[in-house]
Write a structure and sequence with these properties.
CATH superfamily of the largest domain: Transferase(Phosphotransferase) domain 1
CATH class of the largest domain: Mainly Alpha
Strand content: 5-15%
CATH topology of the largest domain: Transferase(Phosphotransferase), domain 1
CATH architecture of the largest domain: Orthogonal Bundle
Order of helices and strands: EEEEHEEHHEEHHHHHHHEE
Structural class: alpha+beta
Strand order of the largest sheet: 1-2-3-4-6-5
Number of strands: 10
Helix content: 25-40%
Radius of gyration: 21 Å
């Protein structure tokens, strides 16, 4: 399977165009729809047969996490001749690229913006019982679409690669033990962002494990380097305020001293002032598909775009919107059916 993917290869409805990322066990390609040439997606393809199950797991997990800060899953088939996971295409760099381009750290406002988007994604994931377990700069994308980094908003931050999200405590050790020597450098890089309890397996992972990774990423955004020992961001960068030092200190800490949730970090972030004395502005209120509510039957969290509860199946809206051609259930803002391509009638109201 490794090394078999080439531009032009047909995967489901899409033709591969360009490889845009490579991981330890898979590749990500930009692809276009075979009919609608302006429709571009990202497709993840495994390079090792034994890791197809992680591709399947990621598709299942992320499909239930519909949020502006989480890369959206469009389709998957782990049993196809070429197993695949189709995702939204994020038109922008990863944090790894941004950090490499800013060896002394990104502007403070940009670092805080990225942190808020990352924490918002984790708040939703953790609220739905999903841990990431493999957060690192390469798994965080910025949807800049040609804009400058200074124009970034929290909603432009996209978290990807939830393949370990619902894995057992043995998942990481399985990957490490099965990895070949030529991937050792990648594994070392991954381990640098993992909480100690994940590395040694002595305690079960929880939300605090992901927050430790956030701390490492935040330090690297501010300074261009990973933390070492007890140093704070201001040790390497004098314009970092004490409030951000303290916030970092509660992320990059022993498990029992860390923040307990992403929401708790976000609340602290709202109280932090920037160096110029201006408070960090709160994120704009979320509207449309990102708004959450409770199912009146089972009480589970659903989104305003959901027509049925994903837990108990209760119908949440009247009337239900369906594609007149294939009977699928499109989202409230969809102009075309993602299953058959039929143009959809404009929703009433």
């Amino acid at each position: 399977m490794k090394g078999t993917y080439q531009p032009g290869l047909r995967v489901s409805e899409y033709a591969l165009e360009q490889r845009v990322g490579t991981g330890s066990f898979g590749e990500v390609w930009r692809a276009r729809h075979h009919i609608w040439e302006n429709e571009r997606v990202a497709i993840k393809l495994p390079t090792e047969p034994e890791y197809v199950r992680y591709l399947q797991r990621e598709g299942i997990v992320v499909h239930g996490l519909r949020h502006s800060n989480i890369v959206r899953v469009i389709g998957m088939d782990p049993y196809a001749d070429v197993p695949y996971l189709v995702m939204e295409l994020v038109e922008g760099p990863s944090l790894r690229q941004v950090i490499e381009e800013h060896p002394r750290g990104v502007p403070l406002e940009v670092a805080v913006t990225i942190l808020r988007g990352l924490l918002s994604a984790l708040a939703v994931a953790h609220g739905n019982g999903v841990l990431h377990r493999d957060l690192k700069p390469g798994n965080v994308l910025l949807n800049l679409a040609g804009r400058r980094l200074a124009e970034l908003s929290p909603q432009d931050v996209k978290v990807s690669d939830f393949g370990l999200g619902i894995g057992s405590p043995e998942t990481l050790r399985e990957i490490v033990q099965s990895a070949s020597l030529d991937r050792e450098d990648r594994l070392v890089g991954t381990m640098a962002y993992m909480a100690p309890e994940l590395r040694d397996g002595r305690q079960p992972a929880d939300a605090r494990s992901d927050l430790y990774s956030v701390g490492v990423i935040f330090f690297e955004l501010l300074t261009g380097e990973r933390p070492a020992g007890a140093e704070l961001p201001s040790t390497l960068r004098s314009d970092v305020p004490q409030e951000l030092d303290r916030l970092f200190g509660r992320l990059y800490a022993r498990r029992e001293r860390r923040y307990g949730s992403a929401q708790e970090v976000l609340k602290d972030l709202e109280r932090i002032s920037q160096p110029a004395g201006r408070p960090v502005p709160p994120p704009p209120p979320r509207t449309g598909p990102a708004r959450r509510r409770s199912c009146p039957r089972c009480g589970e969290v659903v989104l305003s775009s959901d027509q049925f509860c994903t837990q108990c199946g209760k119908q949440l809206v009247t009337p239900v919107r369906r594609c007149p051609a294939c009977g699928a259930y499109p989202g409230p803002d969809d102009l075309f059916c993602i299953f058959c391509g039929q143009r959809l009638p404009t929703p009433a109201g």
